[in-house]
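Students often ask what a 'structure token' actually looks like in practice. Rather than answer in the abstract, let us consider TetR/AcrR family transcriptional regulator, a protein of 206 residues. Its sequence is given first.
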Amino acid sequence: MGRPRTPLLDRRRIGAAALRLADENGALTIPALARALGVAPSALYHHVSGRDEIISLMREELVLTTGAGQDAQIWSQPWEQALDSWARTYLSAFAAHPGAVPLLATAPLAEPFMHAMYENAAELLLTAGFAEDQVMPLITALENFILGSALDLVAPPVMVSDVARETAPHLSAVLDHTPADRSRATNAFDVGLRALLAGFRDLLRG
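Now compare that with the structural description of the same chain:
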């Protein structure tokens, strides 16, 4: 049998399949990915060195399909508006692929396109007047909040349930004013993001 005219695999296809697999199963293994692509596991190693590189391709696919953090207009805004816009585009990207969040959040960021995004964030914050030793903690804190919020967006609309009003009257009172739908998570994100940015502002003033 001759070679197929169209190659069975390329790096973009591997990344897209790995992202789908993580979304569906909440996990990623080389054998499962090979099955999803209809090839032998050994075929993957003609294109990638291993699992870490596959996760890198997943991250690249997510950025390519969502544009998260890549819009130059985001970084041309004043720092608070820029971080607000970045957080919201980043949240949308991760919320579209919740199963991949644990993998993407714990893999080292070695990709040049990610370095370019962090360069934009670092330049923005340094130009705003933040100290060099403040910048990465601020970025990390914001990203941690975004990742948690992305998982919350795909969690059940009601997360605290079956509360006995007699033994937890204060909790019951606040739950009475908590939406029992998806807006619960979006409201929490909005409140948390405002609080984070206010805290960043206080650091800058201090």
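One point worth highlighting: The first helix runs from residue 11 to 25. Ask yourself how you might have guessed this from the sequence alone, and why that guess would often be unreliable.
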